[in-house]
Amino acid sequence: MTVSPVVVNSRYRLGRTLGEGGMGRVWLARDEVLGRDVAVKEIIPPDDLVETEHAKVQERSLREARAAARLSHPNVARVFDVFEADGHTWIVMEYIPSRTLAEAIRDDGPLPPRRVAEIGLEVLAALEASHQAGVRHRDVKPANILLGDDGRVVLTDFGIAAIEGDGIVTSADMVVGSPQFMSPERLRDGTAALGSDLWSLGASLYTAVEGHSPYERKSTVETLTAVAVDEPDPAHQPGPLAPVLEGLLRKDPAQRIGLPETRRLLRRAASVSPVRRPGRKVALAAAVVVAVMLAAGTAVWLGRRTETTTASPPPAAVATTAPVVPSPSALSPSPTPPSRTPESTVTTTVAAGNTRPPLPNGWRDYRDPTGFRLYVPKGWTRSKEGSIVYFRDPDSGTTLGIDQTNKPRPNPVADWQGKAEYRVGRGEFPGYREIKIKAVKYWQKAADWEYTFNGSTRQHVNNRGVITSKKQAYGIYWQTSDSRWKAQRPKLDLIFASFRPDTD
Predict the structure, then answer these.
(1) Where is this region: Disordered (predicted)?
(2) Would residue 117 count as lying in a domain?
(3) Can you give the residue range of the structural domain that contains 36?
């Protein structure tokens, strides 16, 4: 006998369970109206709660939906709908194929400090956006941090969030949360300020790099006491994260570092090259050099700049990769490995010419003031860091980056070979597999460096360095999850075909 799938609210067809806890479960569902996958959170209060407590649970669930709905940020899970059915509250959210930071720590052990710093920067961006909207999360912990298959880092579960001006928040809610990740002031008097969420972020980052929380004890009472009176357990492998962990985990909120200093210290930690530790079980989630090759060799820009830059952080999907602030030696041309032989030229499916392909439906002809034109899918977001212009698909996380230089180098293939040898040798691409480094027939001269590596899932990158004239060259960087590569490749081909220098 076939059991018909359950449809709730005449719209959402429930599939498999994504997670389950004491207050309900989360389903993977299909939105039958819009034809997309969503995550549906079903709130099921425990049977032993009295009726008044049931009401509080429902109120808290509605508060979560209201809190998250106020936010529109790539590092915050979006809420699409909320309704009541079968006596339960249901919250419809963005479905993000992912695993939690807690699962990554459990499965892979402590993460490398640089990767933890990168994650911290993305969660920090989510907290900054939420507090600017008047929302305090109040339950920042590894289990509420998603590491998306597309490279995104997303803060989720605003179930006990406090909203400025919302009279629903009462004293009964004050100690709701996870004791190991609750700040001393929250335990003491229920304070829910930015500093409290930053303390919880510090405890989460400590857990990620050490493999256990800074106040892990045998019982809840012991944990509560330790958070209130003890110093954090000494960190044994924080590496460059040591200053930010010390600054965030200070008990006195007045002495705790704020958001700007936290960002500065995390950026510094994210710029430190990884140290190989043979035999150590680590998460293979660090990775791509966000490299838009400046003219096949002048430089490989690596995502974030140094502390002195005034540029804003890169967009979320790029920022969750593993940027490294380049040293002078990293920026200088790497020697061509003597063991390599020149690659034969391969023709791409498109070539530069005077005629651009017709503009398809759902695309726009974008002209950037920095000096280029190309077709971009509608709905993709644009951001800029320094000279690099990023476009990002908010649904899949696929990312396009464009950079340029007026000092081209003559041999794109040789330069990519040198860069690959140097970067891979430094351990910057866990699970690196080179697909090709080959010249392509595109404008005056060009070469592709295509490879895959291990992020939270397998990632697939194509870096194209292209010389368009004696004094102008561009880098075209494309990253998506390996599972989406074939489906996304036609978009990249169209971008290549539509790309034009625009230096007039």
Answers:
(1) 307-364
(2) yes
(3) 7-94
